[in-house]
Predict the structure.
Amino acid sequence: LPGHSVHCSAQFAARPADSAMAMSLSRMERQVLAGFAICVVIMAVLHEVMQLKELGMAIQKQLLEDYYTTLGVSDTALPSDIALAFKRATNQFNSRPQDEEGRIRRALIVTAHETLSNTDLRAAYDHRRRVVKLTSDGLTIACVGV
């Protein structure tokens, strides 16, 4: 038996060398694998960035509905443009909407008009809008930097 154990250990000693040679990769193959690994990491990072961007946009939307978009006017719109946009937006509702989504949409249009047609409320809204935008952009940049 002692001779047998020597024989087995000699076989195992020879196998790793044979398998190491069979498993050894050329320099080009290692570079290809490293390039592939880098691509996988980059794709994972880009995926996370896209998720963070979507999250930032969702937070921004929840924090502050964009009244300019609701009425379909630019943020430099004149009061007459806002009034006209309000009339166009409310014309789509012939009467009071019966469904919940229609009531919410109509209430948002009315709130947007009330806010943007009053100069003091509009100035306060514009300030809040800028703060939310800067904060959301800053959070996105900070998270991407991590």
